[in-house]
Design a protein that fits this description.
The chain is an alpha+beta fold. The chain has helices at 7-12, 19-44, 62-70, 88-104, 110-114, 129-142, 216-219; strands spanning 54-58, 106-107, 126-127, 150-156, 162-170, 173-177, 185-186, 193-198, 206-209. It has one domain (17-219): C8orf32 fold (Roll). It has seven helices and nine strands, in the order ααβααβαβαββββββα. Helix 2 (19-44) runs antiparallel to helix 4 (88-104) and helix 4 runs antiparallel to helix 6 (129-142). The radius of gyration is 17 Å and the shape is globular.
Length: 220
């Protein structure tokens, strides 16, 4: 599966923006996302948490398998922790991390970066969607989030293309950090079809997602 992002559009740069202008646009988008995220946190204070249901073990994405072969420490068994207690500090950390990588890493496909598909790695200045996820997951772990609550997740976009996002498990539900949509959202209120994600007990294993949800905006 090929994970796509906005790389082609941004690299071809049809608007004629300079790199500095493009970064400024991403910063403005991040500021908007931060405000929206603050409003969303207020809304979730009384919301009923609905976790993402899974249905047993499934195949590991080839890019993640190769990533684990290069760095086995990233893919070990883990003790499953209770969902992260989401308070304003934790929410602010999620917004900070999401905005940081969305504004400092330029999206590019693996083919554009490496000349091949499915090479998962930590990004420096450029990265594919799964690279954003790896970076955000690592940054949140350094801020005290347990690895069993930070799960790489494979989804299908409305146009049928594959994509990778980060699922954060909290006591207020599962939230999605994404490089295509700047606003952190409850998993139920995203435009994606959820396919599979990392296991909460083993960072190198994956589970199928049973996606039969009702969009949160429709349920209100």
């Amino acid at each position: 599966m090929t994970y796509t992002n906005t790389a082609k559009t941004q690299k071809e740069n049809p608007t004629g923006q300079t790199p500095g202008q493009a970064r400024a646009v991403r910063r403005r988008m991040a500021a908007t996302a931060s405000l929206a995220g603050s409003l969303l946190f207020t809304a979730t204070m009384g919301a009923h948490a609905v976790t993402m249901p899974t249905a047993g073990r499934t195949t590991q994405p080839i890019g993640h398998y190769e990533f684990c072969q290069r760095d086995p420490a990233e893919c070990r068994p883990i003790s499953e922790a209770a969902p992260h207690p989401l308070d304003r500090k934790g929410w602010a950390q999620m917004i900070e991390v999401n905005n940081h990588f969305n504004t400092t890493v330029a999206p590019r496909t693996d083919m554009q970066i490496w000349g091949r598909e499915e090479l998962w790695s930590y990004p420096s200045e450029v990265g594919d969607c799964e690279d954003f996820v790896l970076a955000k997951r690592n940054a949140l772990m350094h801020r005290g989030f347990h690895p069993s609550n930070l799960l790489i997740t494979v989804v299908r976009q409305p146009n049928g293309e594959g994509h990778a996002v980060l699922t954060v498990r909290t006591d207020r539900g599962d939230f999605i950090l994404d490089n295509l949509i700047g606003e952190i959202a409850d998993w139920r209120d995203t435009p994606y079809t959820y396919l599979k994600r990392q296991s909460t007990r083993h960072a190198g294993r994956w589970e199928t997602i049973r996606d039969s949800r009702t969009r949160l905006s429709q349920a209100r």
